[in-house]
Amino acid sequence: MTTSLFADDEHDGTYCCLGCRQTIGRTYFPPNGKWGLKKACACVVAENEAREKEQERKLRRAKMERIYAKSIMNEALQKATFHNFIQRPGTEAVCKASADFVRSFEGRTTGLLMYGKAGNGKSHLAASINHELNRRGWVCLFLDVPQLFNLAKDTNRKDSKTSLTDIISGAIAADLLTLDELGSGYLTEYEFNDILFPIINGRQGKPTNFTTNLDLGRLANWFEKDKNGAPLDTDGRIYDRILGSTDIYENQGTSKRREDAIKRANGGRQ
Question: pLDDT per residue over 199-251, tens digit each?
């Protein structure tokens, strides 16, 4: 930059961007009788767009923190990272897929569906993804499914300052939503029609990660009927949407929790 951008000489203030090396000239503005920039270079445009995007994310994050103020991730998952995940036989593919997911997140439209035995690290990897993308500035929301249902039901209380619409719109608005423990317990008609379906349907085209202890056949059955055997999703509306919007990985690792318990029982020996 040389002199003021509003100097009287049309060449004063003309500059070359050190980023893209584009020379930015000036043009005369008759209304105020001043010279100003003809246009912003690509660097300035990109910088302004990035600033606007970050501001929009801050607003969404603040709104989400208000809506989900009662959501609590347990201490172990709060500390979960890729670095403290212990790879064991059978976890290699899902671990690599999780790391690749983070690297390729921008522009992704599909999430991950990780299934396998309880305690083998699915939630740890899902939480690690959540934390890393949060650290990089994305707006991420991690909820286990029973917790989501409880938060939604709490909106029916007279003193609730959050509505069911807030819960659903907040989950849809996240850059990444993680639903942990899908298939836990039994679905009710209310949970299916008023909570789960609107969220999953609303997030079509946006990445959503799922973890479940159920294999694909049992997961399909979980959606079909409620606790009393009444039909819920016999047409497979949610199941079909989940399969169509995720890359599916079976975590074939054994339960780390059980292995640790056996180790403690043996006085620290395997």
Answer: 999 999 999 999 999 999 999 999 999 989 999 999 999 999 999 999 999 99
3 state DSSP class of 96: helix
Amino acid at 177: L
CA angle 170, 246, 102 (to 5 degrees): 75
Give the Cα separation of 19 and 26 in Å (integer): 19
SS (H, E, C) 72-116: CCCHHHHCCCCCCCCCCCCCHHHHHHHHHHHHCCCCCCCEEEEEE
Q: Are 202 and 168 in contact (CB under 8 A)?
A: yes
Residue 190's domain comprises: 58-265
How far apart, in Å, do the first and last CA atoms of the chain sit? 68
Query: What total of structural domains would you count in the chain?
Result: 1
